[in-house]
């Protein structure tokens, strides 16, 4: 079956720049929509549901900062890859945009090859995150929130919902269980045993020492060496995905 074109929304008040971008992207088989100001861009984002947005910062009606702030209020748009295309090389503006959720900055005049590479990488990351979410919702074996495991520590027992587990990390013959309540349990059980207990619709192994809850994935990053790392909720550190277990991410992609 023929794959559907990725949709890119360009919000740019300079007609020459927007026309050049449209032509460049259409040559790469992207479906491109153009808006000449911020308000029109917001309207088109609501209507066409793009896969990625390229937005100028300084525009006559509202700024690119206001555009991303408004779009981030919509559940189906808040994780959208958002690239700023700007001539403003200013650390204050850079930090402001990144704090609002921008994924990258492309400075004018832009290099076409670099721009296309950034777009490709951002779309790949977005697709992987989206596919993890879809897999969670569509899997018939998905365990509901009321299902629990019982953690026994000495004479005490602690009921723990599956959805409370963020990830498990092996440490010799023990497993460290990290939870949404910021509690950590240390259990004498191997990850291989955990794989037989935990629902496969929600938990995947990404490293010989780590199992993650895909419902707790915040974002996935890909570096210049094509290596993936996973950022989880309530965790400050990214976890490297082992190439051996990369298929566990790939099999969930569309």
Question: How would you characterize the overall build of this protein?
Answer:
The chain is α/β, with parallel strands linked by helices. It folds into 2 domains: 7-138, Rossmann fold; 148-250, OB fold (Dihydrolipoamide Acetyltransferase, E2P). The protein contains 7 helices and 15 strands. The strands form 4 sheets. Strands 2-1-3-4-5 form a 5-stranded parallel sheet, sandwiched between helices. A 5-stranded antiparallel sheet has the order 10-9-8-12-11, with no helix packed on it. It has a 3-stranded antiparallel sheet with strand order 13-14-15. Helix 2 (38-48) packs parallel to helix 3 (64-71). The longest helix is centred in the middle third of the chain and has 27 residues, at 112-138. Residues 138-146 have low confidence and may be disordered.
From the alpha-carbon coordinates, what is the Rg to the nearest angstrom?
Answer: 21 Å
N-to-C SSE string, H for helix and E for strand: EHEHEHEHEHEEEEEHEEEEEH
Uncertain regions: pLDDT < 50 for 5+ in a row? Answer: 138-146
**The CATH topology of the largest domain is what?**
Rossmann fold
